[in-house]
């Protein structure tokens, strides 16, 4: 009878849990970024549908250029372009640089040159090539791989080598 009770108790016992799997490194954290020109393109969404068309961008760039070209010269010097970049891209040094935009190298940025460069950026961002840039297409997602190394140029435990 004791043997039967021991058999019943063994059968009723819950099976042992599998050994715990040690946690691995997991997925690295990601950083979402928006380049300044993409931020402007997103802001050019005139009908507020979350999508910017090429026509909306064209109109927006024209208005932004006119807001800086107050003397109506039809072109901006590099300082004027820096003023445009600060107002519309968020920083005077944001890309595209005036050297990229000034295709004829006359040290002046025309509306046409700016339109061509912004259209080029629009086409690059339009990943599905449907003629529309969405907020998702404006994002750049970069995985950040954790590292135990000290940042370049800084050493732990003493002065930098000479």
Can you give a write-up of this model?
This protein has about 160 residues and is of the alpha+beta class. The chain has a domain at about 35-145: EF-hand (Recoverin, domain 1), CATH 1.10.238.10. Helices cover about 40% and strands about 10% of the residues. It is built from seven helices and six strands, in the order αβαβαβααβαβαβ. It has helices at about 1-10, 35-45, 55-70, 80-90, 100, 110-125, 135-140, and strands at about 30-35, 50-55, 75, 110, 130-135, 140-145. The strands form three sheets. It has a two-stranded antiparallel sheet. It has a two-stranded antiparallel ribbon with strand order 2-5. A two-stranded antiparallel ribbon has the order 3-4. The longest helix is centred in the middle third of the chain and has 15 residues, at about 55-70. It is elongated. The termini are far apart. The model has no long low-confidence stretch (mean pLDDT about 85). InterPro entries: EF-hand-dom_pair, EF_hand_dom. Pfam families: EF-hand_5 (PF13202). GO terms for molecular function: calcium ion binding. This is EF-hand domain-containing protein. Keywords: Signal.
**Which CATH class of the domain at 37-143 is shown?**
Mainly Alpha
What's the CATH H-level superfamily name of the domain at 37-143? Answer: EF-hand
- Examine the coordinates and then state which fold CATH places here, giving the name of the CATH topology of the domain at 37-143: Recoverin, domain 1
Radius of gyration over C-alpha positions, nearest whole angstrom: 29 Å
Helix-strand pattern, N to C?
Answer: HEHEHEHHEHEHE
- State the separation between the terminal residues, measured CA to CA: 85 Å
Beta-sheet strand percentage?
5-15%
Helical run tally: 7
Largest sheet entry: 2 strands, antiparallel
Low-confidence segments, given as residue ranges, are: none
> What is the molecular shape?
elongated
Q: How many E-type strands?
A: 6
Protein name: EF-hand domain-containing protein
Signal peptide: 1-16
GO molecular function: calcium ion binding
Organism: Sphingomonas lycopersici
């Amino acid at each position: 009878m004791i043997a039967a009770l021991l058999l019943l108790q063994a059968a009723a016992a819950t099976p042992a849990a599998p050994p715990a799997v040690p946690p691995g490194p997991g997925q690295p954290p990601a950083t979402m970024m928006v380049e300044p020109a993409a931020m402007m393109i997103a802001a050019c969404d005139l009908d507020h549908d979350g999508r910017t068309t090429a026509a909306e961008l064209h109109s927006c760039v024209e208005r932004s250029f006119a807001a800086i070209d107050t003397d109506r010269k039809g072109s901006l010097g590099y300082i004027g372009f820096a003023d445009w970049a600060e107002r519309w891209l968020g920083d005077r040094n944001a890309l595209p640089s005036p050297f990229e935009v000034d295709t004829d190298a006359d040290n002046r940025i025309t509306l046409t040159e700016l339109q061509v460069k912004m259209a080029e950026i629009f086409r690059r961002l339009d990943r599905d090539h449907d003629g529309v840039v969405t907020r998702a297409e404006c994002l750049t997602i970069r995985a950040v791989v954790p590292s135990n190394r000290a940042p370049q140029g800084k050493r732990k435990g003493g002065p930098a080598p000479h």
